[in-house]
Amino acid sequence: MATLTVQPSPVPLTLHLDPFPELDDGQLFALCQRNRDLRIERTAAGEIIIMPPAGGETSDRNAQITMQLGLWAQRDGTGRAFDSSGGFTLPNGAMRAPDAAWIERERLSTLTSDQRHRFLPLCPAFVIELRSPSDPLPSLEEKMHEYIDNGARLAWLIDPINRRVYIYRPGAEVEILDQPTSVTGDPELPGFVLKLAEIWNPSW
């Protein structure tokens, strides 16, 4: 397996594989394992997206989000939380790695040992994407609709640049919250409340 050599870029890069064959799930997993310092996703069309590493503030914000979701998941006990290093192969063939995700235990229990050690072949029930300065808002909005179209019951796009939270649900209009101090996951995630003070104003 060849190693990709990618120059640092402030924006996501798209690797077009034409006229070469598209990578299957196993090859994509091997590519990501070989290039662990790259953040890689695959679109439903088979394009490989290489995203820039997160800056300090974005990394701190993402850690805050993952910590809060993880603590709630431990208390709730009905599912498991995942951080941004986890990949998911969606029903449409895309491989996405949301900044945070949650999946019900009953769905996870159906996976084989081999499936658990690779990109999980399912769409999380709940996903969070955190916008970084290098992320164009329209592309993130498209990704949120993709999650919903592939089975997510709830998806949040958190935009610290404009201090907005976009809430996506199947069959519903996108709800936009301006400068909220918190956002609740009810009824899909009963009792989960994400506090946003540290997201809007990192204390360092």
The outline comes out as globular
Count of the domains: 2
Q: Total number of helical segments? A: 6
Strand order of the largest sheet: 4-7-8-9-10-11
* Record field, number of beta strands: 13
* Biggest pleated sheet: 6 strands, mixed
What is the class of the largest domain in the CATH system? Alpha Beta
Mean pLDDT equals 88
The CATH superfamily of the largest domain is identified as tt1808, chain A
**Radius of gyration computed on alpha carbons:** 17 Å
Straight-line distance between termini:
41 Å
Spans with pLDDT under 50 lasting ≥5 residues?
1-9
Succession of helices and strands: EHEEHEEEEHHEHEEEEEH
Structural class by secondary-structure content: alpha+beta
CATH second-level architecture of the largest domain: Alpha-Beta Complex
Strand portion, in percent? Answer: 15-25%
From the 3D structure, determine the CATH topology of the largest domain.
tt1808, chain A
Helical content band: 25-40%
Explain what you see.
The N and C termini lie far apart (41 Å). Strands 4-7-8-9-10-11 form a six-stranded mixed beta sheet, with helices on both faces. By secondary structure, the protein is of the alpha+beta class. Helices cover 27% and strands 25% of the residues. 28% of the residues are buried. The longest helix is centred in the N-terminal third of the chain and has 21 residues, at 56-76. Residues 1-9 have low confidence and may be disordered. Strand 12 (182-184) and strand 13 (193-195) form a beta hairpin.
